[in-house]
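Below is a concrete protein record.
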Amino acid sequence: MPTMMSSKRPVSRFRQVVDMPQPKTRDPRFDSLSGNFNEDLFEKSYEFLNQQQNEEMSEMKQQIAKLKHKNPAEAKRVQRALEIMQSQRAAKEQQKRTQELKRTHRKREVEAIKKGKQPFYLGKRDLREMQVAQQFNKLKDSSKLDKVLEKRRKRNANKDHRSMPYQRRDE
């Protein structure tokens, strides 16, 4: 490697005469200066959005009833939008229930650790089992359990029926 720089390279028009420190960009999601995220506080602060969404959904239902006979295509579009909102709401509710399950489990584990027991970390499978048990108890309390189990039995019987081979005709 030569000790001198080559004079064959052209000099840049924009030379850095004084070294200026580059401004560092900060991402508020990961920066400690922005504070910590408190999910409960966030939910309480933006609760009014859920109320607004409820009002919007009721307006959409009324709009569908009005447009059903006048403009079926528009009614279908509004119906689709309403279904999307309802499925998002259901997903949020499911996520809340999951968070609540995790929170209660964590509290129980902290108490158990204080008593000197080994910690048990909740895996996805265990969480799923707890969710199913919670859903089962909820259905049992609302007396819809028989209906749900009957539907599941029919669905499984239909699957079994489809997987069976057809009987050959004797000739």
Observations:
- The chain is about 65% helix and 0% strand.
- The mean pLDDT is 88.
